[in-house]
TrEMBL record:
Keywords for the protein's UniProt record, in alphabetical order: Aminopeptidase, Hydrolase, Metal-binding, Metalloprotease, Protease, Zinc
Protein name according to UniProt: Aminopeptidase N
EC numbers: 3.4.11.2
Domain Aminopeptidase N-like N-terminal: 69-188
Domain Peptidase M1 membrane alanine aminopeptidase: 228-448
Segments forming domain Peptidase M1 alanyl aminopeptidase Ig-like fold: 453-551
Reactions accelerated catalytically: Release of an N-terminal amino acid, Xaa-|-Yaa- from a peptide, amide or arylamide. Xaa is preferably Ala, but may be most amino acids including Pro (slow action). When a terminal hydrophobic residue is followed by a prolyl residue, the two may be released as an intact Xaa-Pro dipeptide
Pfam families, A to Z: DUF3458, DUF3458_C, Peptidase_M1, Peptidase_M1_N
Length: 888
């Protein structure tokens, strides 16, 4: 592990390398403890200078150039690897042999051992932990890979591309040779060796080519692979239809592995997945798991074009592939949902995506890690796989889609591929293709790539009855005083009867439809709507057309009106969220003063009206009646006081459960879904609303609700119902029933690692509904010695520690600072094992300055103690120093 203070890498310093690699032959003699890698690179000169190879933690066995050992004088060891002076040559065959120990690789970057098998993770800089190589995305080479291993230990041998040969060797060994026909950067290299089972399907691509699709899983999991396979086929079809993009290989493989740092990885033709985003069957996976699997499978598949065929010049351009691919997977999921569940299901998807943006990205963009979607500098690139690069990046692409229209966007994509297929390019190249294909100037739009912080949009409306005019003034406010942004604002005006008004701006010859997209380019824009017969209620930023914070003064009456009438389903949901935020914040002020918070009648009435509106789909009602996430609410408080917020939320949830108890109980019976479980948005929506109702009923301690939840949690329900009921009990004062349900769940699933992750997470996130309840921290400390828990498995870390730090703010930010001390101990330990995971966990306290002075002092003490330690990984150090304001 590198322990030095890492240097800052800057975007403006980008230089192409003097040497590139045309083709590479890799030969692996695989072994869990001592794998030997022989790497033959055919290198070609592109400019003046030595051959630069990156290397990390490798034992080098030999190094030759054109068959001759490299003399010491031609070799320079550097902080990141080595440089070889190749004299006057223009081409060179460089061969390097290294030895590595996959079992000792606890960082899970490079080649590592998991559950008896060997797996790789190379993005961003893992390949240099396998062999010496110019490990940068702008070096694209053709790979041939030979894998050789013991047949009994590693019966399956996989790598990128097509299998060209395989066979037996002496001594119970065997080999496989894989050839990837497409040049690729080293971060897309992958290999898998293990005892795996496969689900296979052959499909024809749109042009009639037959392709073999495979989902590889550990022994015993074959009955959980169908949904991933279906999702893959749907993704293929969608990309053919929407973007004319076809699978370019004869074989496409997905492999599920239990130990994995993130969600999944788009290695060319050999995607490696965290098992939780592959494995599902009704008894073990919830509707939400099914939904996530579909979108992650799609995301990795879509990378094959946006990321693999056209990749990034350097890691600063990460959003080029990530923002675009997230946008593509969001559109795919929305289309899939709409095809099965109608347009309302599409709106629900948009709402979920914006919820993620607001809870994860907005706080990031307001804290010490704030960065533009294309950052200008970093110390550890793994710290920049962020919500900003991914989710805000996707919003930026979505704005292009809105500004150019679906057809214009498609034309831009076509042009992008026609110019850049097979290249490593920049975000400018992408936006230029969009601009050229549409004859639209997007220079100002590029500012989205360089400004950090969430812009605010201040809106003010004025109605002039005599002139029948409505004047709307929209003012952009940018955090760093940056220049004005180019953004689309979709808006409508709602008449007093609740119906949208036709929109007519000065200069229009005819009224436009009821939602109109206005392009803002200036700091202030004034719009004058003509012929407005009565004072309208504005509905702004429909569909969340730009990633900004909209500030518009609306009283309770207006919010209730929009909750009832806004024709834009996103804004209708948003009106409910705004009402909830206002109510919760007012209640929190009382809670902080020790006054018992009161829930206003007007709120319960508006909430109940949505609940009772049978014209709205169940899925939509479920999202509309879900309270905003605590992380999002804390963002609206200064100082943030999680304990007072929690007190307010407990009162609010109880009150919703009590005052609407009969309605929830009635719905519970009406929403039951008959027949076998199927993953379908309509069914899932009914289950979601029923589970939400259960949460409110149990929170209020409604006896019938608790009884039903206990029966469901311990009966023979599928996982969506079982877990929904368990969650309702754990998040309630019914502690005896919760304990019974938790014990039942543990008994059933003790051997099922993925299901046990849910069991750990629900307990780590448990609120204290009654004073006598055990604090979450005590429970977590006890669970660390549970036989199903493991400190070397990232999913377990995220389940037990991540859920506590992120999803349980009131318990984590305890007044005695015990939560922070626990956090610091976990970071110390994880830093040694797995810096990427440690750094993700370290980030949970980056916004420590937002909390009360007493909490700030306690948090600062722990952060400073950690920063003072000398063996901190660059990943963790960068995060903590930024948190303290030591680097920018
Ligand atoms: N591209 C990978 C992320 C790799 C993260 C490396 N620390 C997964 C994805 O976005 O599809
Ligand atoms: Zn991605």
């Amino acid at each position: 592990m590198k322990t030095e203070h890492a240097p800052t890498i800057r975007r403006i310093d980008y230089q192409p390398l003097a040497w590139t690699v045309q083709s590479v032959d890799l030969h692996f003699t695989l072994d869990a403890k001592a794998t030997v890698v022989r790497n033959r690179m055919h290198c070609e000169r592109r400019g003046a200078g030595p051959l630069v190879l990156m290397a990390e933690g490798l034992t080098r066995v030999s190094l030759t150039v054109d068959g001759v050992e490299v003399v010491e004088t031609a070799l320079r060891e550097t902080d990141t690897g080595l440089e070889i002076d190749l004299g006057e040559r223009d081409t060179a065959l460089v061969e390097v042999v290294t030895q590595i120990n996959p079992s000792a690789n606890t960082e899970l970057s490079g080649l590592y051992h998991s559950g008896g098998g060997l797996y790789t993770q190379c993005e961003a800089e893992g390949f240099r932990r396998i062999t010496c190589f110019p490990d940068r995305p702008d070096v694209m080479a053709r790979f041939t890979v030979t894998l050789e291993a013991d047949m009994a230990a590693f019966p399956v041998l996989l790598s990128n591309g097509n299998l060209v040969d395989s066979g037996d060797l002496d001594g119970g060994r065997h080999f496989a040779i894989w050839e990837d026909p497409f040049p690729k950067p080293s971060y897309l290299f992958a290999l898998v060796a293990g005892d795996l089972e496969v689900l296979e399907r052959t499909e024809k691509t749109r042009s009639g080519r037959e392709v073999l699709l495979q989902v590889w899983v550990e022994d015993g999991n074959l009955d959980r692979a169908d949904h991933a396979m279906d999702s893959l086929v749907h993704s293929m079809r969608w990309d053919e239809k929407t973007f004319g993009l076809e699978l370019d290989l004869d074989r496409y493989m997905i492999v599920a592995v239990s130990d994995f740092n993130m969600g999944a990885m788009e290695n060319k033709g050999l995607n490696i997945f965290n098992a939780k985003f592959v494995l599902a069957k009704p008894d073990t996976a919830t509707d939400v798991d099914y939904e996530h699997i579909e979108s992650v499978v799609a995301h990795e598949y879509f990378h094959n074009w946006t990321g693999n065929r056209v990749t990034c010049q350097d890691w600063f351009q990460l959003t080029l592939k990530e923002g675009l691919t997230v946008f593509r997977d969001q559109q795919f999921s929305a289309d899939m949902l709409a095809a099965a569940g109608g347009e309302s299901a599409r709106a629900v998807k948009r709402i979920e995506d914006v919820r993620v943006l607001r809870t994860a990205q907005f706080p990031e963009d307001a804290g010490p890690m704030a960065h533009p979607i294309r950052p200008d500098q970093y110390q550890a690139i793994d710290n920049f796989y962020t919500a900003t690069v991914y989710e805000k990046g996707a919003e930026v692409i979505r704005m292009l889609h809105t500004l150019l229209g679906a057809e214009g966007f498609r034309n831009g994509m076509d042009l992008y591929f026609s110019y850049h297929d097979g290249q490593a390019v920049t975000c400018d190249d992408f936006v230029e293709a969009m601009s050229e294909a549409n004859g639209v100037d997007l220079d100002q739009f590029m500012r989205w790539y360089s400004q950090r912080g969430t812009p605010r949009l201040l809106a003010e409306g004025r109605y002039d009855a005599a002139a029948r005019q409505y004047t709307l003034t929209l003012t952009q406010q940018r955090p760093d005083g940056d220049e004005a942004l180019h953004m689309p604002v979709a808006l409508g005006l709602i008449g007093p009867d609740g119906a949208d008004l036709p929109l007519m701006l000065a200069g229009d010859t005819a009224a436009s439809p009821t939602t109109r997209v206005v392009e803002l380019k200036d700091t202030t824009t004034t719009l004058v709507f003509e012929g407005v017969a009565a004072e309208p209620v504005p509905s702004l930023l429909r569909g969340f057309s730009a990633p900004v914070i909209l500030e518009l003064a609306e009283d309770d009456r207006r919010l209730a009106f929009r909750m009832a009438h806004d024709s834009d389903p996103f804004n209708r949901w948003d009106a409910a969220q705004r009402f909830m935020v206002r109510v919760v914040l007012a209640m929190t002020v009382d809670a902080a003063k020790g006054v018992l918070p009161q829930v206003p009648d007007a709120f319960i009435t508006a909430f109940g009206a949505l609940l009772h509106n049978e014209k709205l789909d169940a899925a939509y009602r479920a999202v509309a009646l879900t309270l905003p996430a605590e992380a999002y609410l804390l963002e609206q408080m200064t100082p943030a006081d999680p304990v007072a917020l929690r007190r307010a939320l407990i009162v609010l949830m109880r009150s919703i459960g009590e005052r609407l108890g009969d309605s929830w109980l009635g719905l519970d019976a009406r929403l039951s879904v008959a027949g076998e479980y199927r993953y379908h948005p309509t069914d899932a929506g009914r289950r979601a609303l029923r589970n939400l109702g259960q949460r409110y009923l149990c929170a209020a301690g409604v006896a019938k609700g608790v009884e039903r939840a206990l029966a469901r949690a311990t009966g023979d329900a599928h996982m969506t119902d079982r877990f929904g009921a368990l969650a309702a009990l754990v998040h309630s004062p019914a502690s005896a029933e919760a304990a019974t349900a938790l014990a039942d769940f543990e008994r059933r699933f003790a051997k099922d690692a993925l299901v046990m992750d849910k069991w750990f997470a629900i307990q780590a996130g448990a609120w204290r509904w009654i004073d006598s309840a055990e604090p979450a921290l005590a429970r977590i400390e006890a669970l660390m010695s549970h036989p199903a828990f493991s400190l070397s498995n990232p999913n377990k870390i995220y389940a037990l520690f991540g859920a506590y730090f992120r999803a349980n703010p009131a318990e984590f930010h305890r007044a005695d600072g015990a939560g922070y001390r626990f956090w610091a101990d976990r970071i110390r330990d994880l830093n040694k094992r797995n810096p990427q995971v440690a750094s993700r966990m370290a980030r949970v306290l980056e916004n420590w300055r937002r909390f009360t002075p007493a909490q700030q002092a306690l948090a600062r003490e722990q952060i400073e103690a950690l920063v003072g330690e000398k063996d901190l990984s660059p990943d963790v150090r960068e995060v903590l120093e930024k948190a303290l304001g030591k680097t920018d």
